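Researcher: Hi, I'm a grad student and pretty new to this. My advisor asked me to get structures for two proteins we've been looking at. I'm not sure of the right format, so I'll just paste the first sequence and hope you can take it from there.
Model: That works fine. Here's the first sequence with its structure tokens right after it:
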Amino acid sequence: MGPFPYRMVVELSPREGGYVARVPAFGELEARGGTPAEAVTEALAAAERRSASMKRIDKPLPEPDATADYSGQLRLRLPRSLHARVAKRAEDEGISLNLLLSVLIAEGMGRRRRRGPMRKR
């Protein structure tokens, strides 16, 4: 399977505890997990099931909404201490550092969207 072609939003779910990952292109599709990575994994599985179901009944899939103009690759420099902390967390959660950073960025973007744009100081 290639890159997931749909935008995913990961947010903290304080009311229920844990995290929720939504795939807006599929309407109400959302999944929960105790960690951001678990929520993403569950949402990917739910989107695959929904896609398979839509294909079985010849219903067209939603248009991909992930931006195709970007490679998805980013070189990021971190302080060594932060690099060590996130690497340890990824190891503790049993996921790759790349997946953890992707989830944390998506989660932060979801929080930022609720608070509004950043202001220049």
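Researcher: Oh nice, that was easy. Here's the second one.
Model: And its structure:
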Amino acid sequence: MTDPMFIASPVSVLTGDAARVALETTNDAAYLTPGKGVLSVPLERWQQAQQYERDTWLTYGLSATEDRNAEHAALFDHYQALPEKLGAVIELGCGPFTNVREILSRDHTTKSKVITLVDPLAKTYQEQHPNCAYKDGKLHGLIAMLEPKAIEDYATDITFDTLIMVNVLSHCRDAARVFERIHYLLRKGGYLVFGEPARDIDPEQLYDVGHPLSYTQAVIDEFLSDFKEKYRNGNYFIGVKK
């Protein structure tokens, strides 16, 4: 039996008997879809996760300059499967540092002078994190168009040629809505850069305030089946929308 764990904040982690006691009153079991995971949570639960993100970067992570971005790039084989010309680009859940910065540093070019960055805390990071990659409103010489919204709530008439979402899904509120937004935002023939390890967990044994969603490998595979694979390393996936 896995030792229980209760993560209440970036610096508060309970294990063993202390975790068992905390899990009796606070867990995500009520939101579980058997065989699939916790695919959606109420707004209040998601807002708690957003507070965790604020604390992570704006209280405990003010000296940080990246969020495992180089590590992710290596797991994507440094994005070699992407074309040189990316077209119009959007990153969902960009955080304070972005993954598109790593992609642009490898001689990829865009169709426009604008990179669209969607993250509920994008403006907050720009204003308050000293090392935010788009602090001056630019990213790798391009205009950073900030959209400080939840992915589920982001609406636009524009579609994109390249969509990037790495290590984001577990922080979201509604997985089905996120998948729908990806399909809507990415044009047919466009490139998806998607990195989301499966989280097949027992919510009665693990509570992680910063990561409200969990999902089995089958959930991820079903979503990715709509894309023609160009590169895959576990759930680090680059594909073309069919």
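Researcher: Is there anything I should tell my advisor about the second?
Model: You could mention this: The chain has a mean pLDDT of 97.
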